[in-house]
Amino acid sequence: MIRTAASRRHVLHLHHGYSTAGSCIVRAFRTSTVRLDQRAIVYSKNGDPSSVLSAVSFPDLPPPAPRTANVRFLLSPINPADINVIEGVYPSRPSPSTDLSSDASAVFVAGNEGVAEVLSVGNGITHLKEKDWVVMTKPQMGTWVSSRNVRIEDVLKVDSSGLSAAHAATLTVNSPTAYNMLHDVVQLKEGDWVVQNGANSAVGQAVIQIAASKGVRTINFIRDRQVRDNVESLKSHLKALGATHVATYDELSDRAFKATFASWTQGKDVQLGLNCVGGKTTTLMAGLLGENAHLVSYGAMSKDPLSLPTSLFIFKNLTCHGFWQTRWYDQKTLDERLQMMQTLTGLIRGGKACMILPMGVP
Amino acid sequence: MIRTAASRRHVLHLHHGYSTAGSCIVRAFRTSTVRLDQRAIVYSKNGDPSSVLSAVSFPDLPPPAPRTANVRFLLSPINPADINVIEGVYPSRPSPSTDLSSDASAVFVAGNEGVAEVLSVGNGITHLKEKDWVVMTKPQMGTWVSSRNVRIEDVLKVDSSGLSAAHAATLTVNSPTAYNMLHDVVQLKEGDWVVQNGANSAVGQAVIQIAASKGVRTINFIRDRQVRDNVESLKSHLKALGATHVATYDELSDRAFKATFASWTQGKDVQLGLNCVGGKTTTLMAGLLGENAHLVSYGAMSKDPLSLPTSLFIFKNLTCHGFWQTRWYDQKTLDERLQMMQTLTGLIRGGKACMILPMGVP
């Protein structure tokens, strides 16, 4: 009963409707409010997304079974990791679905994050009703889809008051990564410093805002831009979000930077570094950290390894960790996840974080 | 009153008397039992030891002041880090002494480790008597010296029964490094696995023995030798110490090694890796570690940085630490240091660790 309407163009041009600020922009598609065929972006084998993705259509969902709900996706971001999942190079994998293929072979529905509104609920559900917003609590649920049936334990209700759909759609990956890295490793106090690279990534911008909301000061590294104005514009943007200082990797690489850094921190040891880049500039950034500091890596956008002089570990007692929000979800209870969500939505409503400012930078 | 008898030859040829097994051998000099002039190996500026070290003579010590003791060194090892201290590239530095120079300018007495016997004690000392053995509890005390006056709080008494002077002289650096790395980071149980490189270093051999005494199994990596027999002889030596498996870095680099490793561990996750080498082979060794493992670095003999794919941190939750015995001493009470010493001497007396076996390898 399922029509396959595979088309590379469908995927690439369909429903581009939204992007947040930042160089690591959230590209999302919006399902039309005019009822069309239900559609899903699927793949049956891993590879280059432009080769392996296809759009399939499927009929309207049947009424939901007990303790499940039918939901309609409002916005589903494309995060960089989603591409890696489709390529098959990411440790998280979706479960295969046999409902959406024309020949009963398994396909994977792409997409990890998104906000959906409830269309209808099955018996046994009292805390969700039509029009409520929900986000996924389980990774790799498949969110690049018009609508789907979900189990009650796989979604969390989000109070939509004061939130845009864009806020809600981007609540489960980048903002909690920023929040948890700032809280789980080091007990930061007002006036403490944090250094980070990839500072204009979605996580980086959330780090700036969440840190600023606690009075924690940030030193933020970004790539250089060929056009000088663009660098200044990006610096202004990050400062408007709450960044204390912003410097480019070129500035970081300059011998004079240590003195600049010392004048900023006034000799106060920096206890936390956040890394999503790797490679040489991360080595330099790690050298800025103080005694007993922690370097937390959550990405490797340069694709270069993390390379650090052993002396930092031995003599400065550096500790290096990784952070993966997927593991955090695995280790936490539903209540803990709900509490995190409420903390983040509270920050958004208070204008403290996940604010989306105009960038002015291409 | 102090005669300077500077001579490069003095330092290089004087009193070579002892070496323990291992490639990272402990080279030590023995002060003669026939009373000669008191001598010290000193330097007034940092640099290549063969250029900056000199031997100075000084008169017999005056009677000890209250709460101090005069001690005569029996054996003082030369550890690799001692060279770095003299070069001025090590974070620990000795305090300058003005007693030993001919013109009252400051000199540094070299040497960090050693065993001394008590010659005489000042008033207020009841727990030490003549002929007792002591080791230093403070780094960089200056141990390459015939005799010196020490404050009571800067030495720990060692019960010499069942110990050789070589055992006692090497109690404060390498063995505690091995012991603490095996106990402070991961709670190892009988049957657990540890991987390490530089396995024939003094620390590495202590790791093998201390691990074996707890029923912890070790996979030990060593450099290749040009003469095949030497590799086999070294492997046999380490196995005689208690090593479960020994492999060369060449073997580690071979694609087939993963299968060998899996056959050894039977799929059991390795939770602890110990590194004193850095560079490419450490990257390979880190790849053998299981989920949530810890890699502890205590040296960088290759002088190459520790370079690790970020994915190990993010997806396998690897944590990287450093270990520095000097910091351990800084953070511990005298009682805790004494307890450590007693644990180690207990292992030695029980024939469990710090055993010195004939090497048969050049």
From TrEMBL, chains A, B:
Its main location: mitochondrion. It catalyses: a 2,3-saturated acyl-[ACP] + NADP(+) = a (2E)-enoyl-[ACP] + NADPH + H(+). SMART domains: PKS_ER (SM00829). Keywords: Fatty acid biosynthesis, Fatty acid metabolism, Lipid biosynthesis, Lipid metabolism, Mitochondrion, NADP, Oxidoreductase, Transit peptide. Residues 51-348 form the Enoyl reductase (ER) domain. SUPFAM superfamilies: GroES-like, NAD(P)-binding Rossmann-fold domains. The keyword Transit peptide applies. One of its GO terms (biological process) is fatty acid biosynthetic process. One of its GO terms (molecular function) is enoyl-[acyl-carrier-protein] reductase (NADPH) activity. Belongs to the zinc-containing alcohol dehydrogenase family. Quinone oxidoreductase subfamily. PANTHER family: ENOYL-[ACYL-CARRIER-PROTEIN] REDUCTASE, MITOCHONDRIAL. This is enoyl-[acyl-carrier-protein] reductase. The lineage of its organism: Eukaryota, Fungi, Dikarya, Basidiomycota, Agaricomycotina.
